[in-house]
Amino acid sequence: MNHRAIALGLACLASFVTSGAAAQGLRPSKAAGAGLSRTAPAAPSFPLPEPGADTALRQADYIVAVVNSEPVTNNEVRARAARIAQQMVQQGNPLPPRDMLVREVLERLILEKIQLQLAREAGIRVDDFAVGQAEESVAKQNSVSVAEMHRRLAADGISKERFREELRNQLLLQRLRERDVQSRVRVSDLDVDQYLREQQSAADASSMEINLGHILVLVPENASPAQVAERQARAQRAADKVRAGEDFAAVASEFSDGAEAKTAGGLLGMRPVDRYPELFISATAQLPVGGIVGPLRSAAGFHVLKVMDRTTAGVPTMVTQSHVRHILLRTGPQLTESAAAALLADYRRRIVTGQADFAELAREHSQDGSAKQGGDLGWANPGRYVPEFEQAMNALQPGEVSEPVVSRFGVHLIELVERREVKLTQREQRDMARDTVREKKVEEALTNWMQELRGRAYVEYRDAPR
Fold first, then answer.
1. DSSP code for 396
2. How much is the average pLDDT of 281-288?
3. ω into 41 cis (within 30 of 0)
4. CATH fold for the domain made of 209-310
5. In terms of Cα–Cα distance, which of 447, 454, 466, 463 is closest to 177?
6. Contacts of 112 by beta carbon, 8 Å cutoff, 6+ apart
7. Distant-in-sequence, close-in-space partners of 190: CB < 8 Å, separation ≥ 6
8. What confidence score (pLDDT) does residue 464 get?
């Protein structure tokens, strides 16, 4: 492996530092402290170079394009093209023709230049502490120390300063995209409903499960019209009571002739939908959890159905939840990330040595809506927090307190209180579906935004890259 693999990782590092959070390092949520919440992608692995790797890229340089008066050089294009080619080889993907790869790389670099210029004009800054944390992340992924990582990079012609500058640029890009794109994406209930319908229509019926509450009013064979009318009226009274909010089990016990009325409160139990009668499936397909339908007529009699629970296609039903507390210090002209990290490191020392209580420090110092609750963020499903926050949280054992963690919203101190395995409620499944829809909308919005930036920029092509 050579430095191309790790340098390419700089572009991939975007997945470590990006998400659609609105504030405080959490993703949008109604809970206190919301602003820290999407499933955090796993940190990518970047192999480090061995000393003495290829140095053939070093040659006389020249300008291949000018972007709003800033040049793009031939060596920049060659180096990036080599990184991408190296990754494609490692992944076993066929390489495109070189001229095609070089043209694509040039366009990528032009887009990056445009975005970096916009970030700097907007006054977006990345503190040395954030760059240092990103450095540590890359080193950890390669199971080496930061010093050893720098040694290997230097042996391959990549200085510590150059490496840190590329990291800083990637962080700048992500903060700009969060400000101009991700924070502005909204997902409506209609968007979620449409996604779930699409998932359900595409899902194998055997993979879907539903729990129905069932009230059966039997109609005897050869029943007279009067008997049928009386049975239907009885079923209607049961349906009216359930719709009025009366306890389903109590109504089932009073009205239902079904065997499950007395033993299970009228519940048929969670089972694949293909194990229900087609009448039940079609009647409840469009109902939300809690929805009621009936009376429905079948050969057996009249049925009243209530959707008690339903798994959502494409969304997990069992997850590991985390219960955390945090202290957030917002950064700005009056408080740099480095200074905030130093304060939080001192808080951590006091907490770990028993000189201070996490909740008390959070109430006193945290600049987050959860401060009044002692920094308590409650239980969270995977993907609620932005990747940098979630990565640090996932590395903790219950009772442990993290080192200071920087995000685009400030610097955090995180305590993992406990973890648990739970079955998601229908509402929680919808929340996870909402995150999925949001990520898709972010991708679309990001593509459109980049096209708009490219259209407004001045780009002059010079000599073709080689």
1. P
2. 83
3. no
4. Chitinase A; domain 3 (3.10.50)
5. 447
6. 169, 173
7. none
8. 87
Q: Quote the DSSP letter at residue 25.
A: T
Fold type of domain 318-426: Chitinase A; domain 3 (3.10.50)
> Which of 76, 95, 26 lies closest to 326 in space, CA to CA?
26
Among candidate residues 328, 346, 342, 324, the one with its CA nearest the CA of residue 396 = 324
What does the alpha-carbon distance between residue 23 and residue 20 come to, in Å, rounded to a whole number?
9
pLDDT in tens, 5-52: 343 344 334 333 333 332 234 443 333 343 454 433 333 334 444 444
Total Cβ atoms within 10 A of residue 130: 25
Minimal CA–CA distance to 129: which of 301, 341, 296?
341
Separation CA 370–CA 344 (nearest Å): 17
SS3 state of residue 375: coil
Q: In what order do the strands lie in the sheet with 410-423?
A: 376-380, 318-329, 410-423, 405-407
Contact yes or no for 61/160 (Cβ under 8 A): no
Residues ≥6 apart with Cβ < 8 Å to 260: 214, 252, 266, 267, 268
Structure confidence at residue 198 (pLDDT): 75
pLDDT of residue 20: 31
- Among 330, 326, 350, which Cα is nearest to 411's? 330
* CB within 8 Å of 267: residues ≥ 6 apart: 211, 212, 213, 214, 249, 260, 308
At residue 308, φ and ψ (nearest 5 deg) are -90, -35
The residue count of the chain comes to 466
Residue whose C-alpha is closest to residue 242's, from 311, 309, 295: 295
CB 53 within 8 A of CB 156: yes
The tokens describing 359, both together, are: 């909740």
Domain with CATH 1.10.4030.10 in the chain: 3-184
Write down the residue that tokens 């969270």 correspond to.
380
- Tell the CATH superfamily of the 3-184 domain: Porin chaperone SurA, peptide-binding domain (1.10.4030.10)
Please give the DSSP secondary-structure letter assigned to residue 43: P
- How far is Cα 101 from Cα 109, in angstroms, rounded to an integer? 12
Q: What secondary structure does DSSP assign to 336-402, as a single string?
A: -HHHHHHHHHHHHHHHHTTSS-HHHHHHHH--STTGGGTTEEEEE-TTSB-HHHHHHHHTPPTT-BP
Distance (Å, whole) CA 453 – CA 121:
14
Query: What's at 328, amino acid-wise?
Result: L
Tokens describing residue 213: 């509450």
Among 156, 129, 126, 171, CA closest to 47: 156
Q: Is the pLDDT of residue 115 over 60?
A: yes
CB 366 within 8 A of CB 382: no
Q: Residue 393 carries which side chain, given as an amino acid letter? A: M
